[in-house]
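Example record

One chain of 88 residues, shown exactly as stored in the release files.
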Amino acid sequence: MSVKVEIIISLTIALVSGTIYLIKISLQLKDYFEKIENAIHQIKADLEHDNEKQDEAISQIKKQVNYLHSNLSRLSPENFHWPNFMDF
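Predicted structure tokens for this chain:
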């Protein structure tokens, strides 16, 4: 195989892997934001009907935000270990 073909194959594999990684991140973010949105709706409902649940609801939203923050920092590109595509 020529060097050009090997480079094209390597770049294609890297592009596909990067795309898969971005899709994985976007799906995780979607899930995290849905959890946060649900917690916000729960806070609104709790505040309207029962003031005693206010602290519990606020605690849940803080927990979800902290969870999102910790996972976002873990998903940063410098923590992603790219496979070595040159090992065919």
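Notes: The mean pLDDT is 76.
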